Amino acid sequence: MYQCIRKTLLLSGMVMGLTCSSTAIKAQSKNTFTKPGYIALPLGSIHPKGWLLHQLQIMRKGTTGHLDEVYAKIKKDNGWLGGKGDGWEETPYWLDGALPLAYLLDDQALKNKVGKYVNWVLKHQRPSGYFGPVTKAERDDSSVTIGSNNAGQGEDWWPKMVMLKVLRQYYMATGDARVIQFMTKYFEYQMQVLDAVPIGKWTDWAAARGADNAMIVQWLYSITGDARLLRLAAQIEDQSFPWSKWLGGRDWVMNAAAHQNNDSWMHRHGVNVGMSIKDPAIQYQRTGDKKYLQYLKTGFTDIMTLHGMPYGMFSADEDLHGNNPVQGTELCAIVESMFSLEEIVGITGDPLYMDALEKMAFNALPTQTTDDYNNKQYFQIANQVQVTKGVFNFSLPFDREMNNVFGMRSGYTCCLANMHQGWTKFASHLWYGTPDKGLAALEYSPNDITCTVGASNTGITIKETTGYPFDEAINFELLPQQPVSFPLQLRIPSWCKEAVITLNGQELRREKGGQVITINRSWKKGDQLTLQLPMEITTSEWGHNSRAVERGPLVYALKLQEKWVKATDEKEGDYYSVYPQGPWNYGLLEAQVKDPAQLQVKKVRPVTGDFVWNLAHAPIEITAAAKKIPGWTLYNDIAPTPVTERSGIYKGKVNDQVEKITLIPYGCTKVRVVAFPVVK
């Protein structure tokens, strides 16, 4: 691992050596760039196993591996291959997930497929540094080439930001020095023209998402040390939406909760917010000013307080829309928030965001796609008692009423292209490197990692075997090529009261939750390290005085059998509605909410390599006592949360009969109740 990183540093330093002016070198010594707390590992170091590998294999067989074959917008005359077709965000979105999938699975056919786009982009950079599909001006007049003298004839900065993320991942997988040369030229072009053609010249999308541009600029700086890049990153931030100020200032998030009109909706657009939460971390990285860390914590806490949902995400249908369990969340917002958290974790090292990432990944993400990864929901709902065409309670319902159904092209197709980065980037961020040549396991799922560690750069493979997030034990088998000393860091989630760490069958230590611990020792081949994370059942409070049941990183929802109905929309194609087979209008008994230990947990099946996030494979069930609320019925396709008094108790009519209901992991459901009213 570290040999690979040093090699790429040397290669890129050679590239930049000719372009750094003496002024830039002098300025470099005055910058306050903060090195990341953790180091992203080369793509391909982590090899998913078990259920996570199966998830990625499903994606390869489905749209992630074949979107360019089944989706006409990307298939036909693609602009990112020189054609007249899609030249905006959807092709880069798809590549942003398909490229890491190719390297995680070491799939040469998929590498070749995504490589066509990467190579076209690298080979067709203009002499000025500008890049992207052939512009209208260039197509209309073959003598025109976009440069600093005619930058206004270029096209939107935004989709280039996504492609820059693709190229960074490609570089992290291959070390291809062309990427460093390419980015150097492009950022020099931006330095020359941003005064004349600022980030928001063509669209507000670019101004809303400028932090993604600054992020890659700062990544290049971390390799080359060219201080001009920090000034460029600051300029991009100055021309973009002031997210850090908004997140830290608090008025913005309150206004977003209060208003759902057409004024400044881009400021509360859920995907923009998901991308923006990393802005304070990126600003902190560039400046070293710790006020940005406070802005980040304040803003993230406020968003989740005012707009948070039990499944670990905030409402985003399309706008931030409060914490009522009948609001929706866009799939793009989830995967972008996950990526932001992965960047935040690397920069800050704060366990708060590690915990937030796993809750999104294991709850919000899996429920919003079909088992074959060919269909998705534009908006999911926490208390989603049916999936059907309708207006619902969304801030952007659409006249065609297709936002809640499962379909390939239902709702906006941005999510069809963008959903692929969720699992792939999560898998590639299970581990990070540490500055002292160690390793940090900050997210848990079955995998092997192969890299080098320690002062001697000793090769090592660590096999992580686990049924997490369903099972409590995470086992690590360390296989260094020779005995080696290095620090191994492990995250203890905040929901865990006390973790137990054993080494070769002997208890090593016990640690409280909410921290990252370090085990610094000499490791030998065959060492067996086990992290035991006891999962207690808890209940949590959510919008409208509702309560959810949680166990470890998972939230649990009412198990309802499903009836799937296929239909076809004239404009948006085939789609599926899903209806519950059985009653859903239950309230949880107050006694069990106050004392969750009364709830019964049962492991009904092992987590095997063919696991899929659905009813049939749900490995854990929780049995609860509940009563029906006869007046809780559908209204405008939603199940409005029953009103309760301050004590949290529903005072309307409740059936006398106590019934046993079954709860399963939220991510295994399509129709459900997760935020329950409480009854006596």
Structure write-up:
The chain contains 23 helices and 25 strands. Helix content is about 35%, strand content about 20%. The strands form five sheets. Strands 16, 17, 18, 21, 22, 23, 24 and 25 form an eight-stranded mixed sheet that branches. By secondary structure, the protein is of the alpha+beta class. Helix 6 runs parallel beside helix 9 (about 160-175), helix 12 packs antiparallel against helix 13 and helix 19 packs parallel to helix 22 (about 420-430). It is globular.
What are the salient characteristics of this protein?
alpha+beta, seven-stranded antiparallel sheet, 680 residues, disordered N terminus, 21% strand, eight-stranded mixed sheet
